[in-house]
Amino acid sequence: MRRTLTGGLAALALLALPAFADTAAEPGEAWTPTTFNLDNGMQVVVIPDHRAPVVTHMVWYKVGAVDEAPGKSGIAHLFEHVMFQETDDLAPGDFDKIVSRNGGQSNAFTSWDYTAYYERVAKDQLGVMMGLEAERMTDLVINDDPEGPFISERDVVKEERRQRIDNNPGVILREQVLSKLWAGHPYEITVIGKMEEVAALTPEDGLAFYHEYYSPENAILVVAGDVTEDEVRALAEEHYGPKQPTGTAHGERKWQSVPLLAETETLTYSDPKVRQPQWSRYYSGVSQIRSPREALALDVGLEVLGGGMTSRLYQSLVEGQQLAIDVGSYAWTDLHDEGPAVITASPVPGVSMDDLETAVMAEVEKVLEEGFTESEVIRARNSLAASAIYARDSQTTLANVFGSTLAIGGTIGDVLAYPDEMKSITPEEAIAAVRTVFGADRHYIEAHLLPAAEEDASE
Amino acid sequence: MKTRLVSTLILAGCLSACAQFQNAPLVEPEALVAVEPALEVTVHSGDFAEIQQFVTPGGASVWLVSEPSIPILSVEMAWKGGEAADPDGLEGLAEAVVYHMNEGAGDLDSLAYQTRMEELNMSFGCSSSNNWTTCSASMLTENAGEAMDLVASSFSAPRFDEGPFERFRREQEVGLETREASASYLAWRAKSQALYPDHPYAREKSAESIAALTPELAREHLRKLMVKDRLLVTAVGAVTPEELAPMIDKVIADLPDSSDLPETPEIAFPALDAPATIVVDLPQPQTLVQFTGPGLKREDPDFFPAYVLNYTYGGGGFDSRLMQTLRVQQGLTYGVYTSVNPGEYYSTWGGAGQTKNESAGAFIEGVKIEMQDFVDNGMTEEELADAKAYLTGSYPLGFDSNAKIASQMMGVRQDEMGIDYFDRRNSLVNAVTLDDINRIAKEYLDPSKSLFIAVGMPEGIETAEDAAAEDTAAE
After folding, report:
1. Cβ contacts (< 8 Å) between A103 and chain B: which residues?
2. Residue B140 is nearest to which of A315, A319, A386, comparing CB atoms?
3. What are the tens digits of pLDDT across the range B406-462?
4. Domain end among B218, B252, B286
5. Same domain for B244 and B181
6. CB B194 within 8 A of CB B292
7. Which helix (H) or strand (E) holds B284?
8. What is the pLDDT of residue B38?
């Protein structure tokens, strides 16, 4: 739904998608993107898809929750809501009205690493959409009326937080775990922010954030769909070209390497809404930007270990021993900085958390010792690579993949090379990556999600 | 519309992605005695898709859009008849059938089957709803033949092994527990018990019904749900009718021609008179508010006026009055939406949203005030023009991927709206008048005819118990 956020505690769908391109992609193939820069420093990416007379128009800003000032958590996301409100030339509500009247759909999302705004529309309306995005890039008005839209959007975001996080015991626990895993790093606070800090954000905070980060040289335009590079270039020069850098924005990001966990601990959360326990371990992982080869190898390794029904963990814990109702392993490798590598399982009724943990970790240890077979690694890496072909069915997916990769410092070449890079991961690299992150010398955070104790169940 | 024979347009528009098929003999030489009858393909060149319609030699009715630009193929199959046909006491039987469709077939046990799907980089699975049983497969065109052979084995030689069946039961038992903490499930149960308690749609799986299911029952039920004469097929991808037809025929080869399923009775929406809000306790910070009123069938002449009205009511996001009032002006919710839900046996019109428990009463009041305003004052000409502009202007956005086109075609086939529906749809929207809308608003949006359900720990709501207590006090 509109004005959403991605990353971490929110939907991981976008980040969970590998970055893609067709295995057979050759430069010059019909769908291969092209890129150029406007004179004001704004990067433009064009991804042709002529199947339907429709375009997806996105503007990505190189700012996210990672860049928030201390005590101002949630400003990146709340500000994204405010971008739909009012500009020099647009009254409150006009932005949505103009998009809808032209048959368009608009939305936006915020993650730790970036903020993106998009419109999907019939191709002949592309110029109108560019005009709207260009207007709010530099001419936003933030009303400081205490009864005004900034304040009511703040209430909306508080409801959004309740809906996404506070209603869901599993998400509450994950928020606690991640704040430990990333302690001292800006990722330690979830994208939507702490409730009490969001409640204290002011229109002045919004304005300061806008001036610091929103300017054409900090933006990437991505247009996917029934367009040519020449058409996009002409429209972009007309609408975005006249926008001069504001002079108040800077391009410095607050990314930093995430140190390895220094101690092991267990967090427990119980709630009457929990009817099925969940056991998880979060280890320090890697990021594709900082260590590309290791990240791909880890993705392959965790696919073999716990990626699906054919995985080692599933076959042992769910099918063989029948101790788990589900089990899996995965890593967040698509963030700019290092994210977690996770092993998680849910017990068959009657199986204790201790017995489940012992059995899961015994299987992990066994696999780490034995290593992988070549055929299971080939299957895993081919599946991950093939997702790039299926991704081509959606112009929105492609726009998201290229936009998010560029926004965190990757290149179009990185995306195009993904399938071949993925297919070149060897069984030795895959097992080495898994042995490293789950090594005996590594610490982890263990999470136990439990039903409320009997006496509390009626509260 | 025009009809053509196979040899005329074979591979037209099929570029490199289809090249692997080009060497296949297209039509048997005439000198042979047994000449295969040519596939008769009717092409509908519509505004949004060129749909090729044909019946395979084996008897499957297929709608195909050939899309050569991406080397993938998606196939959807649907049969009328679903969970409502589960025998009493065997609730969950249709689910058991569809669960096992990718859990082993022929020589392949569950693990071998799943491994084979990974090797082919394909996906295949089935699902069930009240009225339909559906299977979908996605594959790469480079190995589409092998992928469809694997799919076919699920229909000709399904295994229903004891191992996967026991796993299905374990998962179902956990599901019976977790659903009790699901706000949407609790709202559904309260609604179905209030509105149609004796209808098959209100039946639920139970520990007893799950325990009563067996692989043998599921195997027999597969042959009742999936039969030739109720099958609908849609496909989109880099494939021609002549290439697809034999793949489909392998899938259906061993299906029975027909079967008898119990008739689903129609549900008349009860005449409500300002019922008290039903509250279901669930310990969480927000309340899920659901409201349900009478709806219209798809073929009802008032369907399109209702559909356009719904945009302004609560279907149109920030263009809707509910979103404007409850989110933008009052900050009560992250989102509130309504939809018209036409069904063959049961139609409703309603919506839902979440708000903090403290404001649940205000949220419900806000919805009722907006509904009453539609009844009293209708919509404006400007709102109608805005709704039409969005609904018609955005229609092409639903056709920009193979997956969307396949699913849109299946929807048209299931609702029997005709192959030219996509082309007619915008003019049906544009024909709606303000008089129609205002008449329908009075008939359908009266808040006293809707049932409100609140799941959470809501405050500020008068429940049936409260009302009874007040009556007692007044006496």
Report:
1. 389-390, 392-397
2. A386
3. 999 999 999 999 999 999 999 999 999 999 999 999 999 999 999 999 999 999 998
4. B252
5. yes
6. no
7. none
8. 84
Is A305 a residue whose pLDDT tops 60?
Answer: yes
A281-301 pLDDT per residue, tens: 999 999 999 999 999 999 999
> How many Å lie between the alpha carbon of B233 and the closest alpha carbon of chain A?
20
Query: What is the maximum alpha-carbon separation in chain B?
Result: 97
Instruction: Please give the average per-residue pLDDT across A156-180, as a whole number.
Output: 97
Domain boundaries, chain A: 4-239, 265-456
**How close, in Å, is residue B390 to chain A by CA atoms?**
4
Residues B45, B186, single domain; the answer is yes
Q: Report d(CA B42, CA B60) in Å as an integer.
A: 14
The residue of B327, B334, B355 whose CB has the most chain A CBs within 10 angstroms, and thus the best one to mutate to test that interface, is B334
Q: Is A348 on the interface with B (CB under 8 A)?
A: yes
The model's pLDDT over B257-269, given as tens digits with 9 standing for 90+, comes to 999 999 999 999 9
Amino acid B36: pLDDT: 60
Decide if A105 and B402 are in contact by the 8 Å CB cutoff. Answer: no
List the one residue out of A417, A457, A317 whose CA is nearest residue A26.
A417
* pLDDT tens, residue by residue, B87-137: 999 999 999 999 999 999 999 999 999 999 999 999 999 999 999 999 999
Q: What is the mean pLDDT of residues B203-224?
A: 98
Question: Do A309 and B392 lie within an 8 Å CB cutoff?
Answer: no
Mean pLDDT for chain A overall: 92
A265-456 has CATH 3.30.830.10 classification: yes
- Taking the CA of residue B50 and the nearest CA in chain A, the distance in Å comes to 12
Pair of tokens at residue A158 = 């508080």
In a domain, B260, yes or no: no
Q: Note whether A310 contacts B331, CB cutoff 8 Å.
A: no
Instruction: Decide if pLDDT at B16 tops 80.
Output: no
- CATH number, position B333: 3.30.830.10
Contact A167 B319 (CB under 8 A): no
Of A105, A163, A167, the CB nearest to B397: A105
DSSP state of B87: P
For residue B7, name the pLDDT band (cuts at 50, 70, 90): very low
Q: How confident is the model at residue A458 (pLDDT cuts 50, 70, 90)?
A: very low
From A54, A274, A325, residue closest to B400, measured CB to CB: A54
CA B445 – CA B291 distance, rounded (Å): 11
The pLDDT of residue B68 is: 94
- The boundaries of the domain holding residue B232 are 2-252
Q: Which of A275, A322, A351, A423 to mutate to test the interface with B (most CBs of B within 10 A)?
A: A275
Confidence (pLDDT) at A143: 85
pLDDT confidence band for B463 (50 / 70 / 90): confident
On average, the pLDDT of chain B sits at 91
For residues B300 and B211, membership in a common domain is answered with no
Query: Residue B146 above 60 pLDDT?
Result: yes
Domain A4-239 falls under CATH 3.30.830.10: yes
A80 counts as catalytic? yes
Q: Could you give the number of structural domains in chain B?
A: 2
Cβ-nearest to A389 among B67, B71, B332 = B71
Annotated active-site residue in A26, A29, A80, A429: A80
Q: What is the DSSP letter of B38?
A: P
